[in-house]
């Protein structure tokens, strides 16, 4: 595999999602020196006290920690290296959980925190060279298609029942993980396990949306209620209303939308993180559309066969072009003028400053910073003036499609790691996602991975101060927010194409259609090279021959699939909204049965 070229500066969404000191970002955190004997009861009790609250009883926590100590005995004294990107959750792991693991097991654990792009680069270095760089990895499940096809990743579902059975936690409870489907490949096997997750949702000023005067004015103008937009038409109407009708609140200029548009690597994930799916690009299917996914890549069996419409893909189809057109229109008309020249890191803090009415593309990893006391969007009693809700969908969207993106940083093992080091790393990776620690970790980072944590009473009590985060994760809507999936055969190679091509549209040097044509062609070119190399074997790309767009439109209609769709005669149907409080009350008040977990 060709490595990512090293870039200067923080270029990934993850590295911007928390405000960390330079030392926390650039330095590594590591565990204390290993004890010379197994953890005694006092050590276990000390860490049980740290790991409160927990979904386990203290007796069961003790049982699980004793298992880790015993299972680690053959590896005591080893020095193990693990890496992840920088967010609050991983900082807690590197600073607290790594120390706990060392004290409990005698394995010296060094957990590095580096930029996400560097994680990918080092991962590719190990996969390319076969030399062990890290013993364990926490990298995005967006790479599931990459891991599956290159055959250099340990298949966890096989490992846990085979070679790694003696070091697999009997209390791990794999079916409790809400993102298990994200890390399952087309062969039905589990390649990774989620360590943290966060979604990309709709954010809005609840206090403004419930203002009687604003509600009356909106209803008089648009003929429907001001509320959470169900479709993009309503989002656009609301953006227009606050920007050009309300204009000012308490003497401050307000805007109906926030985004960013600078041609910069951060523009890439603005779109790979499922913007096209929100518009209605691709096919039905959870976690990702089949045969065409939200990147517009068609897959037949396990083989990607094309990205462009002429090969049966949808990257440059009408739905994709519509998504880019609306992005540019709203950025120009309804966002602060400086937003067009901003990067992700510059745009992220703006809603907290108090003059933005709504934002469709908002990461829940911002929650912790958005609930800080004293900021403009918080009430004096500690409750937020804002809420988060499911994202509205575009005119091409159909029921059964995914509706947004969810990041899932996931634990991963590579075959090139020596067997004993892999086992020791697997113990640590299980420890940081174990039931003993996961609820406390969820409270620290607000990045949920377990159903049992989401429904814990401690989050029922905390929910009113988190602006809808808990309600969303408990809702049936949650399953429609998913990471990049199996159709993408080489995430690093393809993802870097997006910001370069869509950046041409955001800068005005190309039309949305021309930009997406170029992106589709570039993706096809990468897949063609992978096909010729044969490096991905029987599930590598095998491109369809080129046909007319009409051929593929007709085929989708004949087959009963969706993508690529013909251009709609009307891309702005009537706006539709829902009352936020009514929406919340419609969601279930108790956890689903285990068999239905996603």
UniProtKB/TrEMBL annotation:
Residues 1-38 form the signal peptide. InterPro entries: ABC_tp_sb, Bact_solute-bd_prot1. The keyword Signal applies. SUPFAM superfamilies: Periplasmic binding protein-like II (SSF53850). One of its GO terms (molecular function) is transmembrane transporter activity. PANTHER family: ARABINOSE-BINDING PROTEIN-RELATED, POLYGALACTURONAN_RHAMNOGALACTURONAN-BINDING PROTEIN YTCQ. This is ABC transporter substrate-binding protein. It comes from Bradyrhizobium manausense. The lineage of its organism: Bacteria, Pseudomonadati, Pseudomonadota, Alphaproteobacteria, Hyphomicrobiales.
